[in-house]
Structure prediction request, 283 residues.
Amino acid sequence: MKNLLRAASLGILLVQISSICLTYSCSTPIGDHHPEWKKKFDEYHVEGCIGIYDLKKAKFIDYNPDRCGQRFIPASTFEICNSLVALQTKVIPDTGYLIQWNSVTRDVHAWNQNQTLKTAFVNSADWYFREISSKIGIEKMQQYLTLTHYGNMQMGSNTDSFWLDGNLRISCDEQIEFLKNFYTYQLSFSKKNIDLVKEIMKLDYNPGQLNNSGFILSGKVGRGIMCDEIDGRLKNIGWFVGYVEKEEDVYLFATNVQSGDLVNVDLNAIVKNITLDILATLQ
Prediction:
């Protein structure tokens, strides 16, 4: 009798464990993995990963899924969220809001001029976003980081540059989740403000790069330097996140690359080229 009771208890326990695993996705996420894409990163002498999400089919396509789950500093890709918060809190009224350049010469020539939200977004003009972030304030910004579940949702002490040199971290998987909620209007922002940011995210590009002029490409690049938590060395991090629209099909993507060269590589160009090459491969 004791053995029968023990067996019955074990059976119930196994059913409970199976139920938990189904609920919390204990198994490896189902997706279309492409280890052969490593050569596309090797060509530019960078480590990296890419995640692509087919919105209609709810299907993931990726290279290096382990890295897709690792968090890195978001750099200028955070300007998508920063723009949304600035508009929603009415710190700025629209994408044409002008801030005068303070005549401080910076390394990037395109930064050394008056900027609107649209030009600052295109040029990744950090000083513009530092200013609007300061106006938003730490409490409001933290509130929206939490509401949007943006990465690790941690700002640190650098309230006007936490996405560049603070504690904020995000993974490729989390970038795609944020973009999915953004694209489908599931975030805590008005449709009007989301549409304004969608408009400034649209990119000019050579249609031949995607083998079809019917595609609309939207996205944001970003580059930052962060300290490796394991070996303590500085590493150059590059991002390209966004989505491709073709009629009723939408493909969200997030590409992350890393280089030990802190000076002599153009990671913005590299990460963009890798992404477009992979998207073209997928047609």
Observations:
- DSSP finds eleven helices and eight strands in the chain.
- Residues 2-24 form the longest helix (23 residues).
- The CA atoms of residues 57 and 192 lie 27 Å apart.
- The chain has a mean pLDDT of 87.
